[in-house]
Amino acid sequence: MAEFKVVIADPKTGKCYKHEVKGPEATRLVGMKIGEKLAGEAVGFPGYELEITGGSDYCGFPMRKDLNESGRRRIYTVRSQGVRNAFKGERVRKSVAGNTIYAKTAQINMKVLKYGAKPLGDDKAEEKPAEKPGPHAEKKEEKKEEKAEKKEEKKEVKAEKKAEKKEEKAEKEKKE
Prior knowledge:
By secondary structure, this protein is α+β, with helices and mostly antiparallel strands. The protein has 2 domains: about 5-125, no CATH class; about 135-175. The protein has 2 helices and 7 strands; from the N terminus they run E-E-H-E-E-E-E-E-H. It has helices spanning about 25-30, 135-175, and strands at about 5-10, 15-20, 35-40, 50-55, 70-75, 90-95, 105-115. Strands 2-1-7-4-3 form a 5-stranded mixed β-sheet.
């Protein structure tokens, strides 16, 4: 069964939200192409209208809008999507994924066209669970405590030296 990571871009705020899509919701996306619009209910956001803008397959190869098929192909291309370091006019052979979503697509990028009633970031409002301490957590805590103690000792030594200097100045003034 298909499983996708959906990254939804919010043009108003400039933020992106990640959402996992599994089961029958994911199978609805199979066969859709880059540039197609879909209702937000398909990915769990009722009231929203979304547009597919890209994605990548399970190996990280980017989807290209101009490659009209599913799966991966090696294409001969100039500097463009999927090709970074080509000189002007240089052609490079690169592997890219087609513009159709299929079972081995890992990530789908979308952008919001129409907003729904519920904000996108609400599903992540839950707090993260507390981290479990690792095997060396006690040693790290001890080192932190030692550093704090050393800092305090240094402060005390500085304060004592300042007090001694003040006393010496006061004694010199009395002698004069």
